[in-house]
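User: Last request for today: this protein with iron/sulfur cluster, please.
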Amino acid sequence: MSLVNIKIEGVPYQVEAGLTILEAAKACGYEIPSLCAFNHGECNQGSCRVCLVEATGARGLVASCVYPVNEGMEIRISTPKATDARRRSVELLLSNHNQNCQQCDKNGKCELLHVAYLTGAREGAFAGVHSETYLDEITPALVRDTSKCILCGRCIARCSNAHGLGILGYENRGFRTFVSPAQNRSFSNSPCIQCGQCVNVCPTGALMEHSEIGKIDAALKAGKHVVIQAAPAVRAALGEEFGYPIGTPVTGKMIAAMRRLGFERVYDVNFGADLTIMEEGTELLHRLTEGGVLPMITSCSPGWVNYAEYNYGDLLPHLSSCKSPHQMQGAVIKSYWAEQQGYKPEDVYVVSVMPCIAKKFERQREQLKVNGIDDVDAVITTRELARMIKRSGIIFNRLPDEDWDTDIMGDYSGAGVIFGVTGGVMEAALRTVYFKLTGKEKDRITFEEVRGHDAGIREASIDINGTVVNVAIASGMKSAKVLLDEIREGTSKYQFIEIMGCPGGCINGGGQPYVRPCFLPNEDDNILDTYKEKRAKALYSEDERQVVRQSHNNPQIIELYDKYLGEPNSHKAHELLHTTYAAREGFND
Ligand code: SF4
Ligand code: SF4
Ligand code: SF4
Ligand code: FES
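Assistant: Here's the final one, the structure of the complex with iron/sulfur cluster:
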């Protein structure tokens, strides 16, 4: 690594050559306000001008997010010229911004307000005409409000980087510019997979999840039997909303909070994950031994299912017919559990807490209904659960650790826990498939070959008593496309593929807490590189703590089959736990 000598505010430093001024200043302990720049150049179009500084060798002020350091450079961040320019840049953004912060769900996490604070910018400094704005709240998952968009381009970059999709782009020119799917269509009239990765990087309230908190409030008030279930990845990230370091599992406090919010039962979706493995593992074995369609591809990520339906309609028979874990569990709550309680299914209201925005879309799919009734009635994200807790006055950090309700869906295995990590569904399934093929448990229970936390493809060959199963794992649609094209071309060598919509899996879902270095002074400078790994560790450590680590050994799963479902893939299981898919057009007009 070559170094260059620079000075910041007259103080000498040595920094890595090739860094931008913004990165070099950060490494030396200075925070220059910035807005459009994000994640090591993932987005750095130098458009917002919030990061202007003075630097020798440059004419006038330079955008520190794109201008590189060079030998002998002297950088001035706090001269009157630089601070005035940065303040004016933010005031210009505010002059064309719908600042209804009280009604904005981004309040408290808004980077525009943060840079306004840092620069001393005031609303109204440049009063003038506002550009025409659009509100798209048609989809069940996403809301796009261009009145809050600062045209930073982060969403455009993320959609392309994660998925190669390019759903979002700039429309029009100059003052009339806005960001939207092609020709200002709604998200619902585009091949957007509703993953919410763009929401995760938006610095303002311009892109948000479609909140379902109001519906849950109404169900609780109406006296319904409201049951809540939380996905594995939620516990690994919820603590971040309450000041815990990234990667701190807060399972016990989360359960205590959900109970205090008034839910009749608090269940772990890990039970549903174990059920998924029973069904999916059996389906894979049938396909392997009876000549079914291979490779079989997992189906628990609704972002991925959307992508498949839009882009690979010819490959839909490769998808497992299993519903995702929270849908399976919702179906069991409204049948098995409701019967045990003496409740009618229509009086039971199921809420899922998910790391995922696409689950809001998934729960409304017609193909998932059982006798015309939805498995799940509302989906909230990890962020929305945090909002419900905060507004209820509960002091999360002072809550005792409590345990899940255990009446009929309280047991879960370590296999269910790791569903939240890319490679986790594959590993959980292999533990059960190994047992089914050999009649004995594997000595070394983990399959390290399939672990990882980044997007990209991982592959392994697993020898199970002479039967070699070639597996591959992909997260993010850019990686998935490579595997799917191989299947289409007839060159795929795999029998089983796990695909997750979001890069890194559910721990990095579109509904997880925002990771913003500017709001995380106690985290490492490289937190954007490490947060997925830290959240994944929280789940792997919970797996290691479980006594039961294979889905087929979960006693309440065994009981559910004995008393209600019969056996995996039975007629009853198919009625409740399996689904179908259909190719769709991305644009409907
Ligand atoms: S995006 Fe930020 S500044 Fe705009 S309304 Fe929301 S909280 Fe306020
Ligand atoms: S939700 Fe996902 S697919 Fe849709 S625009 Fe955002 S990043 Fe792209
Ligand atoms: S929608 Fe958000 S991320 Fe996209 S350009 Fe606007 S402010 Fe930036
Ligand atoms: S952060 Fe540098 S121009 Fe926007």
